[in-house]
Amino acid sequence: MRPYQIAATERILWKIKSSYLAKTWSDTQSGGYIWHTTGSGKTLTSFKAARLATELDFIDKVFFVVDRKDLDYQTMKEYQRFSPDSVNGSNSTQGLRQNIEKDDNRIIVTTIQKLNNLIRAENDLAIYQKQVVFIFDEAHRSQFGEAQKNIQKKFKKYYQFGFTGTPIFTQNALGSETTQSVFGTELHAYVITDAIRDEKVLKFKVDYNDLRPHFKQIEMEQDEEKLSSAALKQAFLHPERIKEVTQYILKHFRHKTHRLKPGSKGFNAMFAVSSVDAAKAYYESFKRLQQEQMAISPNTKPLNVATIFSYAANEEQDAIGDITDESLETSAMNSTAREFLDGVIKDYNAHFNANFSTEGEGFQQYYRDLAKRVKSQEVDLLIVVGMFLTGFDAPTLNTLFVDKNLKYHGLIQAFSRTNRIYDATKSFGNIVTFRNLEQETIDAIKLFGDKNTKNVILEKSFDEYMNGFTDILSGKARRGFIEIVAELNARFPNPQEIETEADKKAFVKLFGEYLRVENLLQNFDEFTALSELQAIDINNAEALEAFKIEHHLTDEMLTELKGIKLPTERELQDYRSVYNDTRDWLRAPEEGKESPTLDWNDVVFEVEILNSLEINLDYILTLIFKEKQSQKTKADLIEEVRRVIRSSLDNRAKESLLIDFINQTHLESISDSASIIDAFFTFAKAELRREVEQLIQTENLNDTAARRYINSSLKREHASESGTELNDALPKMSLLNPEYKTKKQTVYQKVSELVEKYKGIGSGV
Length: 765
Description:
This protein has 765 residues and is an alpha/beta fold. The type I restriction/modification system is composed of three polypeptides R, M and S.
């Protein structure tokens, strides 16, 4: 546990003990709330507090109370992961009663609805007179209602604590009740600015997107009465607006989620919309536009888009900005919405070979399976109304598109789906809003942060990253992208000619700085426009005008972009190649070359960022086909392929294999890119079999055992010295033989190199 989690747990235990000794239970004086920002590990903190509370000799039962059925299931899984057999859960009110009657010290996990149903049905339970601790997840919403009053009425000796990342204060309360008035005083706080400074969560980059001139007036509307009017709600659903927003997301999705290179896994995204009607309209729009695109370009890989929604009771909000809860019970949905959802789930079932439905358990299983597939990135874009916008953690999500009015804690909760720490490529939570939420964003981060909140929580602008800025918190000057590119061009115009170790180190540091800033800029629409501008003839007035219209640029903006020079793709390939060569040299200096003499401990190689830019083997093979179609000689083709493959981390070991393929194949006879891929894999598998035969004979290995070891290594994509497979493959010799260890290391090294060269090709040798 982290220090702030320990402190919060200790405060809860102190409050329970002191209230017990003072006999001040069943009052806000005996409880309190923990304000720990979303993403800071509230579940672990609450579990530890609950677990330690069960060990207090005067406490009879500890309840962990959630306000939705999906969180009931999720919390049970999390708690069981922390400590098996530490909790009791139930699927019904009767099951809850049985858990209460058990003579054990397990934590009881329940929904507020089940607990309230039990209290209303039972007037004389023994537990009402016992010492009980209640720990509430997300200390607002339904905990303010009838169930809270029933707990206070029936339980005579309770201690009540709430966890929340976004408390209800007087500023965002609809009535008189706040988190403090219901649960008691704040016991510990760890707010979003603390978590960002400690690098426990990421900042937000918010784009207030207003690129639809016909709809700008309604998208900029701030008057809440007008926003809630039927006419304006319908205007937001205008088919042309739905189409334009969908087109924007499809065009920019791969930039926002770092999937620019073929095969890049990148991240996935969520799209928060205002209503079930909006979810339906957008789902159909994505489906239609992607089908149209595939009809034009059959090789286009469509985004896997899913949606989920349900019945939301028309209850009064507990606070300004509440995201309306949707029930996992679908029986109350109107027939049109349910029929549409049946069609959505039918699409999902066909894609994933599943069998879910909108019926009872079938819908709950769909919810759980969808959550799992979002986390594993099998779903690219999830359209939601209320579900998944609170309490759902998926570190692979980096972007939230928003066509929905959000305020205060609802806004922070929704934005926080994107800011979980993942890897170096994920620099911030990416928010793209299609409504004017600028003031709402500022109001929310002021309420839930501290002074300098805006500077801590929100990322810098495009201009600041391009031209440089001074970090307000650290006082350090940060160089801009333009200055970094200029220095790269000036100091290392030809990176292949770098010779001294000092220059190698200087280059690696400088190019690493370039990679970090370029990775940040990829999320900006302005940088997308700048990148696309490089391919346009700036002397072609007609092409420039079309470009200006497409990217909604003024003449001044276009002039500014034209003045910025980006490295060409060929220059970047050379930079990456030398960067990778230097990394390989540091890890294992080549025989005959001098070893490093400088201290490289202050250098960090941006491997995760490079991996996000990685090109796959199919891309390289398709490039070979296209370059050959342009009548290049084999010598020129080989030079081009060497340049591309040496800039790749994953495929560098395949250089000789690809060159041999080009030299030994009659490329002119291959008619399309699919055929060249098939031809290469046929060639590579034959080469693999030949090299395996040669290795077995050269090293005098046990044929059957050696093939088994090599096949296993190819399947897991690395060789291993552990286990008995390698030993079994070696020629028979005594373990005491002084040559045994040398032989084992030689064979291991050769198999490692073989696997690096042929991984992804297949096994079966």
